[in-house]
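U., I forgot to send this yesterday:
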Amino acid sequence: MSVDRPSQTIDPASARALIASNPDVLVVDVRTAAEFETAHIQGAVNLPLDQVDAHLRQIVADAGGAMMLICQSGGRATQAQNKLCEAGLPDTVVLSGGMNAWIASGAPVVRGRQKWSLERQVRLVAGGIVLTSIVADLWLPGARFVGAFVGAGLTFAALTDTCAMGMLLSRLPYNRGRVDVDEAMACIRRPARSRA
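Result:
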């Protein structure tokens, strides 16, 4: 069953006001652990998108109150919101523009070891494959079709708001930092969320 409803979003200024006025709003960052480590909102819980999928029923059963979902630019958070809504948790909002917009607005962040965002990694890998296939085509006729395949994949990713390459890259050790799923799920279960 699919729930057709427009994505509920919130801009960074309104999100800051919401967090300040309501300490029970749970901020869930669905980026990879590496992206979360680079920069995140104070008090946010890191639960990567694949873990949202794996714990969907438990999140819906345990969540109490409003939940703000965040990713790098809004795409993954919107996917998580749609899945949660379809599973019966409609009280979610997505930070419009994600961490990119949050940081651009001058909002405070907790910074850690700097790593490339998943979106930047996708651009590097896709661009590298296309460039290599075009150069290789000088010696191996037909190699340019690999670049065409990548271009078609990127077009499909844009049209469907999904990214197979991003999902594959998120599984690399570089992106698989430590995520304490049990701790994240405990934060979702806690009725009064006093975050440090």
